[in-house]
Specification:
There is one protein chain. The chain has 261 residues and is α/β, with parallel strands linked by helices. The protein contains seven helices and seven strands. Helix 5 (139-148) crosses helix 6. The radius of gyration is 24 Å and the shape is extended. 27% of the residues are buried.
Length: 261
């Protein structure tokens, strides 16, 4: 019987042992239907895709959003719901050094910077996420966020760059290509962390066209995951007037008469 005290105690012990596994081992146990991949970077990317999709489904109910933190708050809320069973969590944290071009204060230019958020397993930091808003090609802002993330974590292993694109659906695909070009051809990454190759699209893609994902590999085993999100994903809808409809029908009748002659 499954409901005997002995069986329940056995299952509880197995459950506890499973979720005490190191993150790299835990994701090997999670069923494939819930797992984006057997590597931690791919597993977390899959969680990001699900959380961002949740955010996009909610975004129309919000008032005007002008700062990436508001989008990221929704993404973190969804991530925490998705990862709670693993005993992982997403949270804002101060870590590393702030952007030298925008010091926290004149007297403390190297004060601790505010990471957009990080993902933790207890006290262990698994990954860091840096977010920005783009409305078109912006080499300088893209460079700033891609570079400063390297000073947030001395381990420099797993970073996610989350780009909220607000330029409209008609420009989304071309903007993603331009973003890739900036990362590949414009940014000069820190010594020892040069870009190895290009930003390669990942096999983990959502079942909609609101997100592009790519990965760039850098020196010393560092990996950047780039998540490009179309927050204004609505397509333009042109509504005809009743008079336009009548004119179309009238033109169709005239054309039909001409063809019959």
């Amino acid at each position: 019987k499954m409901n005997t005290p002995e069986t329940i105690s056995l299952l509880a012990g197995q459950y506890d042992r499973i979720f005490r596994l190191a993150p790299e081992d835990l994701i090997q146990v999670i069923p494939a239907t819930d797992n984006g991949g057997t590597e931690l970077w791919a597993f977390l990317l899959n969680e990001f895709i699900g959380a961002i999709t949740d955010m996009l489904n909610l975004i129309n109910s919000l008032s005007k959003v002008d700062h990436e933190d508001k989008y990221s708050d929704l993404v973190m809320l969804s991530l925490n719901g998705r990862m709670r069973n693993y005993k992982w969590h997403a949270a804002n944290t101060r870590s590393g050094f702030s952007d030298p071009d925008q010091p926290v204060s004149v007297t403390e230019p190297a004060n601790l910077g505010l990471v957009d958020f990080a993902i933790f397993n207890g006290q262990q930091r698994l990954a860091i996420c840096e977010a920005l808003i783009l409305e078109g090609k912006d080499s300088i802002d893209t460079q700033k966020h891609n570079l400063k993330i390297f000073n947030y974590d001395p381990a420099r292993r797993l970073f996610y760059v989350l780009v909220y694109f607000k330029g409209g659906s008609g420009k989304f695909n071309s903007a993603w290509k331009k973003y890739q070009e900036v990362v590949e051809d414009f940014i000069e990454f820190p010594e020892g962390y040069a870009l190895d190759g290009k930003v390669t699209p990942t096999s983990l893609q959502p079942n909609h066209d609101g997100i592009h994902t790519g990965v760039s590999n850098h020196g010393d085993g560092t990996r950047l995951l780039h998540i490009f999100v179309n927050v204004h994903y609505q397509v333009e809808l042109r509504k005809k007037t009743a008079n336009e409809d009548k004119q179309v029908k009238k033109d169709a009748v005239l054309n039909s008469k001409k063809d019959s002659r």
